[in-house]
Amino acid sequence: MNIPIVYEDDSLVVLDKPSGLLTVPTPKKETRTLTSILNNDLIEKDIAYRLHPCHRLDRDTSGLIIYAKGKSIQQKMMELFKLKKIKKTYIAFIQGGLELGEGEIKIPIDGQEAITRFKVIENKKDFSIVEVFPLTGRKNQIRIHFKGVGHPVLGERKFAFRRDFKIKAKRLCLHAKSLEFEHPISKNKISLDIGLPQDMEKLLLKKKNV
Predict the structure, then answer these.
(1) 27 SS3 class
(2) pLDDT of residue 168
(3) pLDDT attached to residue 207
(4) How do the residues of the chain divide into helix, strand and coil, expressed in percent and rounded to 5?
(5) Could you tell me the residue ranges of all domains in the chain?
């Protein structure tokens, strides 16, 4: 697969993951994942190191994901995530209209604290474009939180029914747009930002402003 590399150095690789691809296998033990694709390519090129994911994106979420070139770097990056020293920003298209401005969702997930901040960027016909900042890293947090406040992410299949949506998106409209962190080795500030994938851009072009 042609998976774009957004950033690379001697320690890290940051890629733009496509929607529909797992980061790592689930308990079903899938063999085709982003991690397996990347490492099979390294094997074919006779490159010694292996890539290890420093965090995960849901199968249906696209966007920036960090891989470490070796276990020790992976551990350093995971520690940064644990200490909340990596800023992640997502773009979500959510059903319905929200008032322009900022807000915060606090709904526990599996008995654990979960906090999501958001900023409404624009209201379109039947949906809103929202910038999302998860302050905690619970599984499916963004999807669960917006469903919980009555505005599920367009294309949601796991936490909402297709019949509930006025707009029938072909994919989950959730994209990991930007990352900011201090490099664990060089201590340089890394700031990465990418645009929306083509399928989400096409959806915007089809819908007229309110």
Answers:
(1) coil
(2) 76
(3) 62
(4) 20, 35, 45
(5) 5-206
Query: CA–CA separation, 197 vs 18, rounded Å?
Result: 8
Given a cut of 80, is residue 45 above it in pLDDT? yes
Residue at token pair 């297709």: 162
63, 167 in Cβ contact below 8 A?
A: no
Q: Which of 163, 173, 186 is nearest to 19 (CA)?
A: 173
- Please say whether the beta carbons of 17 and 35 come within 8 A: no
Confidence of residue 208 (pLDDT cuts 50, 70, 90): low
The beta strand positions in 50-158, using DSSP E, are: 51-53, 62-69, 87-95, 101-106, 115-124, 127-134
pTM of full prediction above 0.85:
yes
Class of domain 5-206: alpha beta
Q: In this predicted structure, what is the pLDDT of residue 58? A: 92
Active site amino acids: 58
Task: Output the CA–CA distances (angstroms, integers) from residue 113 to 58, 75, 108, 140, in the order listed.
Answer: 20, 24, 5, 13
- Whole-angstrom Cα distance, residue 4 to residue 2? 6
What pLDDT is recorded for position 209? 47
